Every structure is written in structure tokens, then in C-alpha cells.
């Protein structure tokens, strides 16, 4: 089971990623510093939750982009191979 995060954490992290997307990386420690710089967070725990959620979103975005690029490459090679097999038979 995953962690349950409040709307405040999700909304704030998504807003920061939209505005300052290039500033965030897959490194939690770096993101923690960026969150502290960009917004005034009342507690360390809330800052860490926001930074953790932002880190996870950045990682997911990179994985999805990689999968999309692989999907675009695979169908052309599979189709070409299939056509070669049919023509060879």
C-alpha cells in the first residue's frame, strides 16, 4: 500500500512543478532545499512531504516519457520485421 497524502501536499507540489519544473530533479535532498527556497513552509514535515511528492512526480514523468519513446520505436521495427517475414515466405 502507498502513502496517503493530503490535497494540500499534492496541490502545492503540482503547482511548484508547473511553475518551476526545471528546478526539480529526482534527488529528494535537492528538492527539499528548492521547496524551502520557493515557498514559505510552516513546518519541516510539510516541507519534506511536498518535496517527496514532487520527487516522485518527477521520477514518474521521466519513466512515462521513456516508455512513450520506446512505444514509438517498437511498432515500426516490429511492423518492418513482420513484413519481411511475410515477403520471405
UniProtKB/TrEMBL annotation:
Molecular functions (GO terms): structural constituent of ribosome
Keyword presence, Ribonucleoprotein: yes
Matches recorded under PROSITE patterns: RIBOSOMAL_S17E
GO terms, biological process: translation
Pfam families for this protein: Ribosomal_S17e
InterPro entries on file: Ribosomal_eS17, Ribosomal_eS17_CS, Ribosomal_eS17_sf
GO CC annotation: cytosol; ribonucleoprotein complex; ribosome
SUPFAM superfamilies for this protein: Rps17e-like
Keyword line: Ribonucleoprotein, Ribosomal protein
Keyword Ribonucleoprotein: yes
PANTHER family xref list: 40S RIBOSOMAL PROTEIN S17
Protein family membership: Belongs to the eukaryotic ribosomal protein eS17 family.
Name the record gives this protein: Small ribosomal subunit protein eS17
